[in-house]
Amino acid sequence: MAYLQINGEELYSEVQGSGDPVLLLHGGFCSLESLQEQADSLADTYRVLAFERPGHGRSADIDGEYSYERGVAEALAYLDAQGLESAHVVGYSDGAIIGLLLARDHPHRLRSLVAISANLDPSAFDHALGRGNPPAVEPSTTEIAPGRDSEESGAGNGTDTNADPDAEVDAGLDAEIDIERARYDRLSPDGPEHADTVLGKLSRLWETEPRIDPAGLAEVSVPTLVMSGDHDVIRPDHSLLIASSIPEAQLCILPGATHGLVAERPGLISLVIRQFLAESGR
What we know:
The protein is an alpha/beta fold. The protein has helices at 36-42, 68-81, 94-105, 123-128, 165-187, 195-208, 236-245, 261-264, 266-280; strands at residues 2-6, 9-16, 21-25, 47-51, 87-92, 110-116, 224-229, 250-254. This is Alpha/beta hydrolase.
């Protein structure tokens, strides 16, 4: 556990294990604790490296707004600070978006990419709630409302329900934020009262970014695994769009999982990641 000077900021860093390097990139309003299960699972075979971006976990916030471009620059500077020319990258949510941008624009710095619950643009959230423009890839005509399994939704038993799927997704996101807020209150050097400032900046980021053209992902040349939950705020058809835009990418949709899938299905996620990394062979 240490702090490193990354692009002029003191950012919290953790390194464990030995072997080929794997860089973990956490999600928005998350600390490294959110990926601890994956870090522990990989550390017996790989050298697992991770850092907390400004305003997250134990890293102090910065003045001004956040951007994914800044996240890419921080990840590259972190690899440089660790003396690494390249690494496997496992990114979750915002970290997965940064991973996609790294793979597209800096492929020589990646050995492979696992992108968990990434989105290409803000409309993915509208799609998750059944609002906005139609998805780029048509979903199945048989759908289960986000946040509900087949039994709860009455599928196959003739039960009707008036539950609002949008409200259920919102409730799931609120619960996830509550968990991360408790961690923020405990870890942040800026104090609990600064959480609303961070959430405000993240909300503005998520409303405007990213803007990734699916056609541009054809330039990604590293082995790539795209993952998300079947009840994720990022709908499966959006994850399919990402995977189908990357040459030879693999797609894994986890059953019964929401956007909090790294906590809900840690063992399964770690198993899939380990197999993917072993097969990547880079």
